[in-house]
Structures are given as structure tokens and as C-alpha cells.
Design a protein that fits this description.
Helices cover about 50% and strands about 20% of the residues. By secondary structure, it is of the alpha+beta class. It has a five-stranded antiparallel beta sheet, with helices on one face. The N and C termini lie far apart (about 105 Å).
Length: about 170
């Protein structure tokens, strides 16, 4: 008995080591799989592993109900704010037009003008400037729903018509 690998004891020892290595590799593989399984279980059941699946599902449902309620409240708040913003936008200048002309029939380069500034409800103002050699006059007239509160000059009427026709839309 020289104790070499050719002897029976050496072969048994070598087989024992091989089986131990295979068992160790198998144990490592199983430990990794178990760790992944527990991570997946924690994702489903939460950190407390003693909780049952039904209890966890009920907790998740409560969470979703709370989230849905929050989303609905937030959406309602956004709708209210949007309605208020749309109201304010309707009051902004939506239509505008500028008409230049010679008020006195002179060759002065069309220095007089009428500017119509109207909102989405067709209400607003007309600002007219009449220039004549040494003087200038400014007139402001109110427009409500497309109609002026005082009589308009032909140039002022033209400015309102052009603004409402879309030729002077503020967006373009």
C-alpha cells in the first residue's frame, strides 16, 4: 500500500473530492437561485415574508385606490385651473387689424391710423390717431360683441371688419 492514486483508497478519495466539488457547485447554484426567488418573493409579498398573499393583495389594492383618488383629485384641480385659464385667454387680444389713411386728403404718407384690438368675444377697443400738420388727436372707442358704443368712421369700421375676418388674427 503505497498510498498512490492507483490504489483503491486513492481512487475512493479522488471520487469523494469530486463528489464534494460537485456538491459545492450545486450548493452555490441553489443558493443563487434561492436568493433570486426570495427577491422575487419580496417584490410580491413585501419585506415581511410572514404576510400571506391575500393580505398583501389587499394592501396593494388599498394603495391603488389611494393612488386613483389622488389622480382624480389632481385631474379635477387641473381641469379647474384650465377652465380659469381659458376664461382669461378669451379676454386677451385675439383679433387685431391696423388701417392707415390720410385723414385730410393730403399727400402726407398715410400718417393717420385706426387700430382694432378685439378679444375672442369680439369685444375690445379701437384706437384712432388723426395727424394733421402741427397736431395729432387720439380717439379710443369701445367695442362690445362686434358693435361700437359710438359711431365709427369708415376706417375704424374697416379695422374692425378686417380684425374679425381673421386678416389680423393675433396668432398669425
Amino acid at each position: 500500500m503505497d498510498g498512490g492514486l492507483s490504489s483503491t483508497e486513492g481512487a475512493v478519495a479522488l471520487a469523494g473530492v469530486a463528489i464534494a466539488v460537485v456538491a459545492l457547485v450545486l450548493a452555490i447554484v441553489l443558493a443563487v437561485k434561492l436568493r433570486r426567488l426570495r427577491a422575487a418573493q419580496r417584490a410580491v409579498l413585501g419585506e415581511d415574508g410572514t404576510r400571506d398573499l391575500v393580505g398583501h393583495a389587499a394592501r396593494l389594492e388599498r394603495g391603488f385606490v389611494e393612488l386613483r383618488d389622488w389622480v382624480e383629485e389632481t385631474a379635477a384641480g387641473i381641469e379647474r385651473r384650465m377652465a380659469g385659464a381659458e376664461e382669461r385667454i378669451d379676454g386677451c387680444v385675439a383679433h387685431r387689424a391696423l388701417v392707415r389713411y390720410d385723414a385730410w386728403g393730403e399727400m402726407s404718407g398715410q400718417q393717420s391710423s385706426s387700430l382694432a384690438l378685439l378679444d375672442a368675444r369680439r369685444s375690445g377697443v379701437i384706437v384712432s390717431t388723426i395727424h394733421h400738420r402741427d397736431s395729432a388727436r387720439v380717439y379710443v372707442k369701445r367695442v362690445l360683441a362686434g358693435e361700437a358704443d359710438v359711431e365709427l368712421s369708415p376706417e375704424e369700421r374697416q379695422a374692425v371688419e378686417e380684425a374679425l375676418a381673421g386678416d389680423g388674427a393675433a396668432g398669425g
